[in-house]
Amino acid sequence: MQKYNLGYICQPSANVKKSIAILGSTGSIGTQALEVIASHPEKFSVEVLTSNSNADLLIEQSILLQPNAVVIADEKKYHQVKTALEKFPIKVFAGDAALSQVMEMETIDMVLTAVVGFAGLKPTLAAINAGKQIALANKETLVVAGELVTALAKEKAVNIYPVDSEHSAIFQCLAGEWNNPIEKIYLTASGGPFRGKDKAFLTTVKKEQALKHPNWDMGAKITIDSASMMNKGLEMIEAKWLFHLTPDQIDVIIHPQSIIHSIVQFRDGSMKAQMGLPDMKLPIQYALGYPDRLKSTFPRFDFANYSSLTFEKPDSTTFRNLALSIVALQKGGNLPCILNAANEIAVAAFLKDQIGFLEMSDLIEECMSAIKFIEHPTLEDYIHTDHETRIKAKEWIEKKLTVIR
Ligand code: NAD
Ligand code: MG
Fold first, then answer.
1. Which of 26, 122, 142, 330 lies at a C-alpha separation of 20 to 30 Å from 72?
2. Measured from the CB, is residue 52 less than 6 Å from ligand 1?
3. CATH number of the domain that residue 86 is part of
4. pLDDT-flagged residues of the chain (< 50)
């Protein structure tokens, strides 16, 4: 047994078929995970599918894959899903509580957390509590409550396999290095659609521009987070918990081509990087299939198409979300939870054209100074902090809109 970042790598037998529950099967990560699962029927089966409110796609996926159970979080859609699946031996549940309850099903081996935002916290904790292995895409869960989540994972001997491409890259670089201390890591960032732009330009940008990511096709929230550099800030905090790092061991480097997915530097100065074309199916498959590298037909990298791979320092003066995330990373406590909740409200407001691109950082900064700091929060403290921050953030937006009217 090897000592690993969160607990223990208990090498699973390579030939065991895993039954997978997907929290958020109708999203960008969820649908790509289903493609991975479908191309390896000898390795994986689908046990549970869930969606927030996309009943049509959940029904379509369920008819095709015949899971044991499905959950639609939006209770208003229960009747539609239940009726559509009546002919099939599929259990149908609705509501937030059901998301956590189904995680206890004995037949689940691994849970892929592909929900977006704070909503992933409770079902992820429920899955860990039930001893399920976790493939984690929902970074916000670790950002909000990394200390609680990793302590519970350790207690229950649950491994958390990263799905986020940068963290998967670090994890892949660590294979065979479990006893070698990390000196530092470099998380790579594409820089998003506004790399190199100044504040004057960013004041004018609209959601349509921010939603056009140069290298990745993702859900709306993470796409805005990538444009504002909040995604990288959240990933720094995610890395702290996944790999037991101190803030000064985590650095960010802009790499516009998104070929090198991240880098580990060891104490002898040697650096290992993991590279490949930007395609989330690869890290999803690595997390689900670990420790095996399963055969894939994903497009291969061709050196002839890339005459150079380039690197730049990030601009955390223009992209203030990065600087704010570093404050939250360093101070800890409930500050990352405040940062996350304020950001979720800010992104939603930006997507509704209620606030400007740079105002997202103003709003987050305001919440970080207004909400009471708690050094060692409990789960209840996190839930309360999240709630209070959302109220504060919505008031801030309302006040701004009132001035405009
Ligand atoms: P998405 O918006 O495309 O999908 C989100 C999924 O979660 C959907 O199935 C939706 O129905 C479900 N969901 C949303 N809110 C919910 C709620 N309140 N309760 C229950 N279910 C809910 O998002 P995505 O891009 O797939 O991202 C999912 C997570 O993975 C995020 O945390 C994101 O940061 C992370 N991630 C995504 C990518 C990517 O390429 N998309 C890459 C790295 C990490
Ligand atoms: Mg990432």
1. 142
2. yes
3. 3.40.50.720
4. 1-10
**C-alpha of residue 268 to centroid of ligand 2, in Å:** 27
Would you say 158 and 103 are in contact if contact means Cβ atoms under 8 Å apart? no
Protein residue whose Cα sits closest to atom 43 of ligand 1: 164
Evaluate: CB of 373 within 6 angstroms of ligand 1: no
For the four alpha carbons of 336, 341, 344 and 346, in that order, the dihedral sign comes to negative
Whole-number Å distance between alpha carbons of 239 and 275: 18
216 CA: nearest ligand 1 atom: 40
Q: How many CB atoms lie within 10 A of CB 177?
A: 13
Q: Is residue 31 part of a domain?
A: yes
What is the tally of structural domains in the chain? 1
Question: Could you tell me the distance, in angstroms and rounded to a whole number, from the CA of residue 177 to the centre of ligand 1?
Answer: 31
CA of 165 to the centre of ligand 2 (A): 5
Report the C-alpha gap between 171 and 162 in whole angstroms. Answer: 7
Domain that holds residue 57: 18-162
Average per-residue pLDDT for the chain: 95
Q: Is the CB of 223 under 6 A from ligand 1?
A: no
